[in-house]
């Protein structure tokens, strides 16, 4: 069986101008990066945004992730290919991969098998340099803060809250001490968890990007007054660093479907959606836009609705919840080594995790929902039949998808069902109202989506809540917690009962327009696993990359 990278490297890619032409774009609308990648020019993006939206927006989400894998990106790509194969005009809208997972545990994020976006090596590594630009803008601001203090501290910094970032897992940088006239403790976050990444993905245009960057809070003065990036006149230079990166990236799937990849905030510690600019652009270029929100629906989909949609006015027309038999058996108590064996009792238990996510999307967000079963060859007929009966008993439908092995034709049934359901009227809603207090918003999320009994705030979080009084009014919450559980404890599988959401720390992201609630033991700078994926990656004598997944 060929690996993902072998399949991608064996494919014949179409010139990027041909992909653009499918969307009605001319060569002058592109800034090309070689034969197979391009950015849409800012003038083209501005022109498209002046036109009305024409597409149905399909949100792909999933159950809670497991070591067995779920295949959300693979399903997003397969569904896009299937829609195009069925005669619809569809475009995928995805996040860019972070180097942290590429070299860490998860690997790349371009799909898998015959449902991938390509060129996968470029996309999974440096791509068009967007993340480097975001890191540079973030760290320029940090350097300006330190430089200001060094040269006399005219703004009278008492506390510095701005952190540096890099797009790599490096636990040694979680805490550092800056030594200058006044020493202070700080640290690094991974770039995809930075506020600059969030701002980049939520800004509507360059002017809004600049305004948001100027609102970033970098510290507090000796008089207790917030100090902003605009006080350091930093926003103009930061925007200059981000100007080219802000243009969405156009690539293709293995079957030649167009795909916009832009931005990449993590969903467990950030808001987990591709850039608003890319989504708004896509909605003017196709009839169906298939986008995904990171990790399970308790994280990515909730933030897609309560942060991205709240700020932009976007509303998806429906949701697809992705599951695998293997992952559901894992939630039912089966360990990874035994997942290839049929186990109907465990599947019956693990199905509750899928039901919770389907119920959440329908009841709390008002979205019509289909279930996509990402099929594995080890799945038995009895297991699929049991899962189908359960899903249909909830008033939804299950669609067995084989896009990993067959490409678009393996997801045709799902594509036709999506196209039909997307035509029906939907009434999407947000989970909570703006006027609620921060603890009240957290309680609604925890009790409604996670099934928690309630929320507790550490002493530090309680102090931070008081410190940001007034500034956090009306802002949504970005919950940073483990992706592996509906709770804040990664060890609690399926649908945990009698648990509490423990909030360890609160961070005000003025520029992004939300408050981050860091829960449990989640880290904003992940570490590498004992055996990093980097150990499998090499380059042969011809310059071909090996081992990338």
Automatic annotation (TrEMBL):
Gene3D superfamilies: Domain 2, N(10)-formyltetrahydrofolate synthetase (3.30.1510.10), Formyltetrahydrofolate synthetase, domain 3 (3.10.410.10), P-loop containing nucleotide triphosphate hydrolases (3.40.50.300)
Catalytic activity: (6S)-5,6,7,8-tetrahydrofolate + formate + ATP = (6R)-10-formyltetrahydrofolate + ADP + phosphate
Class in the EC hierarchy, top level: ligase
PROSITE patterns: FTHFS_1, FTHFS_2
GO molecular function terms noted in the UniProt entry: formate-tetrahydrofolate ligase activity
UniProt-listed InterPro entries: Formate_THF_ligase, Formate_THF_ligase_CS, P-loop_NTPase
Tree of life domain: Bacteria
Binding site for ATP: 66-73
Enzyme Commission code: 6.3.4.3
Keywords, alphabetical: ATP-binding, Ligase, Nucleotide-binding, One-carbon metabolism
Pathway membership: One-carbon metabolism; tetrahydrofolate interconversion
Family statement drawn from the similarity comment of this UniProt entry: Belongs to the formate--tetrahydrofolate ligase family.
Protein name per Swiss-Prot or TrEMBL: Formate--tetrahydrofolate ligase
Organism: Methylophilus luteus
């Amino acid at each position: 069986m060929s690996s993902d990278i072998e399949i991608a490297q064996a494919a014949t890619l179409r010139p990027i101008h041909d992909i653009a032409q499918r969307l009605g774009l001319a060569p002058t609308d592109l800034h090309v990066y070689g034969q197979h990648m391009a950015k849409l020019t800012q003038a083209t993006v501005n022109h498209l945004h002046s036109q009305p939206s024409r597409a149905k927006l399909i949100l792909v989400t999933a159950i809670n992730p497991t070591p067995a894998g779920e295949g959300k990106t693979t399903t997003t790509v397969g569904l896009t290919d299937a829609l195009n194969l069925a005669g619809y005009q569809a475009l995928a809208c995805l996040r860019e991969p972070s180097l942290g997972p590429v070299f860490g545990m998860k690997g790349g994020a371009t799909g898998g098998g015959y449902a991938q976006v390509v060129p996968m090596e470029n996309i999974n590594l440096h791509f068009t340099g967007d993340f480097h630009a975001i890191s540079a803008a973030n760290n320029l601001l940090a350097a300006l803060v330190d430089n200001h203090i060094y040269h006399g501290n005219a703004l009278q910094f008492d506390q510095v809250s701005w952190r540096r970032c890099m797009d790599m897992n490096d636990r040694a940088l979680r805490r550092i001490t800056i030594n200058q006239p006044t020493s202070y403790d700080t640290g690094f976050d991974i770039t995809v968890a930075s506020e600059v990444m969030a701002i980049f993905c939520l800004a509507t245009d360059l002017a809004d990007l600049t305004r948001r960057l100027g609102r970033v809070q970098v510290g507090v003065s000796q008089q207790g007054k917030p100090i902003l990036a605009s006080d350091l006149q930093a926003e103009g230079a930061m925007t200059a660093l981000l100007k080219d990166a802000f243009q969405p990236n156009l690539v293709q799937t293995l079957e030649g479907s167009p795909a916009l990849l832009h931005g990449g905030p993590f969903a467990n510690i950030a808001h987990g959606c591709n850039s608003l600019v890319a989504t708004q652009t896509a909605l003017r270029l196709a009839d169906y836009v298939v986008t995904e929100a990171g990790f399970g629906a308790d994280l990515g989909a909730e933030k897609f609705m309560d942060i991205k949609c709240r700020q932009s006015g976007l509303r998806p027309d429906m949701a697809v919840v992705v599951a695998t038999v293997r992952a559901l058996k894992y939630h039912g108590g089966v360990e990874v080594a035994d997942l290839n064996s049929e186990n109907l009792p465990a599947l019956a238990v693990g199905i509750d995790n899928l039901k919770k996510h389907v119920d959440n999307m329908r009841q709390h967000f008002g979205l019509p929902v289909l279930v996509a079963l990402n099929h594995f060859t080890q799945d038995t007929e009895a297991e699929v039949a049991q899962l189908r009966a359960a899903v249909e008993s909830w008033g939804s439908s299950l669609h067995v998808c084989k896009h990993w092995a067959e490409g678009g034709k393996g997801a045709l049934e799902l594509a036709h069902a999506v196209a039909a359901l997307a035509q029906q009227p939907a009434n999407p809603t947000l989970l909570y109202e703006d006027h609620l207090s921060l603890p009240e918003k957290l309680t609604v999320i925890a009790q409604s989506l996670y099934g928690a009994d309630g929320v507790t705030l550490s002493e530090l979080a309680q102090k931070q809540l008081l410190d940001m009084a007034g500034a956090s009014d009306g802002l949504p919450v970005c919950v940073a917690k483990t992706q592996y559980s509906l709770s804040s404890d990664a060890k609690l599988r399926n649908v945990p009962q009698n648990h509490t959401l423990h909030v360890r720390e609160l961070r005000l992201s003025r520029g992004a327009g939300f408050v981050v609630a860091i829960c449990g033991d989640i880290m904003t700078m992940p570490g590498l696993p004992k055996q990093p994926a980097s150990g499998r990656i090499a380059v042969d004598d011809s310059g071909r990359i090996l081992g990338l997944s």
